[in-house]
Amino acid sequence: GEYVKEMGFSHVEFLPIMEHPFYGSWGYQITNYFAPTSRYGTPQDLMYLIDSLHQRGIGVILDWVPSHFPTDEHGLAFFDGTHLYEYEDWRKRWHPDWKSFVFDYSKGEVRSFLLSSAHFWIDVYHADGLRVDAVASMLYLDYSRTEWVPNIYGGKENLEAIEFLRKLNETLYRDFPGIHTFAEESTAWPMVSRPTYMGGLGFGYKWNMGWMNDTLFYFSKDPIYRKYHHDKLTFSVWYAFSENFVLPLSHDEVVHGKGSLLGKMPKDDWQKFANLRLLFSYMYAFPGKKLLFMGGEFGQWREWDHNQSLDWHLLEYFPHRGVQRLVKDLNELYRKERALHELDCDPAGFEWVDFSDYEQSVISFLRKSKSGEMVLVVLNFTPVPRYNYRVGVPKGGLWLEIFNSDSELYGGANIGNMGRVMAEDVPFHGRPYSLSLTLPPLGAVFLKPACDVCPQG
């Protein structure tokens, strides 16, 4: 709790802590939907943990898995000698991805069981939200299946699962105002995080898997080739406001041979660390809430292994301490600057300055608050410093450099703008003024007008 608070994170999300027979499932194969796992202590110990986090001002989100359950005979499968919890038809019952059973959402008693479980964790354990795993597998009858049963209209949508998810969100938000639900939904299903009365599924937020995949693909490329993949940076803005998005760098990206975040970065160690600092800077500047799996915040080299603790000893080395300091400062900046967080899910909070400089692999944009405060973000995705790089801005006067990922505090070379730049009366990028900037190699700079609430000009 103290570490999370010191680092400036607002919430922790726990992988499923409901009882599960196989530790290697990380909790995603649940047998006991109302019992915390005994591996870490008693139910009272979990209550104490959540309470201690709350006392430090940290919210708690629990992973919850209503999409499938394991076939273990001591669990829910074939519970009373019949297919009580799962579908009777094997084409709907069997989940080929996880070798598990799927709940029969058409049964009132099954829906009641799951709704009661969701309410239980918020009511009894005081969780502040639930992240619902594998929503896409619930929505589609043909998900990962070669043989499947269409719905009554002949379509591939699981109508009873859709109805269940809407009921889940309606009742949770009704009974526990102030909580949030999060959907891990990996398809283009519309309106996942829109109210049910609009035809949505009613979730508070949806994980932005498209942003995550495009971004990690882009960062894995040698910078010399990034100009050929510039669209991976720019495309996700087209749909960034179609949902209330969370930008997830989760456990799923650092397991099964995918490598750690630091390990995914190209070239030598200097460039790997600079790239990782740039990735986090880009993530915090991009519209959407932020999610980071443990160990990423100090640049763990190894993949995550559930049988080992994190490599805390790496913090003896300055490059790792530098990444950790950068994440801490980004958390503080994100909280402090309303332009960075207030309109995360509203197109009014984002404005491109220039997305077309693919030759130099540089992008620039403005983030804005409701009252018109703004932060200019300029990102250089090559290991070459850019001098006298001109960027159009809407305001004249002094601009302050409020963040630079190349600061020596983070393990960088301190290439930047000495903390301040004066706007020039040189129209550029369709704006009346411009800044002549020094862009650090594989670096990000954030600037804001010294007089942020002054009238235009």
TrEMBL record:
Keywords: Carbohydrate metabolism, Glycogen biosynthesis, Glycogen metabolism, Glycosyltransferase, Transferase. Catalyzes the formation of the alpha-1,6-glucosidic linkages in glycogen by scission of a 1,4-alpha-linked oligosaccharide from growing alpha-1,4-glucan chains and the subsequent attachment of the oligosaccharide to the alpha-1,6 position. This is 1,4-alpha-glucan branching enzyme. NCBIfam families: branching_enzym (TIGR01515), PRK05402.1 (NF003811), PRK12313.1 (NF008967). It catalyses: Transfers a segment of a (1->4)-alpha-D-glucan chain to a primary hydroxy group in a similar glucan chain. InterPro entries: A-amylase/branching_C (IPR006048), GH (IPR017853), GH13_cat_dom (IPR006047), GlgB (IPR006407), Glyco_hydro_b (IPR013780). PANTHER family: 1,4-ALPHA-GLUCAN-BRANCHING ENZYME. The keyword Calcium does not apply. It comes from the Bacteria. Signal peptide: none annotated. Residues 1-325 form the Glycosyl hydrolase family 13 catalytic domain. One of its GO terms (molecular function) is cation binding. GO terms for cellular component: cytosol. It holds the Pfam family Alpha-amylase_C. The gene is glgB. Belongs to the glycosyl hydrolase 13 family. GlgB subfamily.
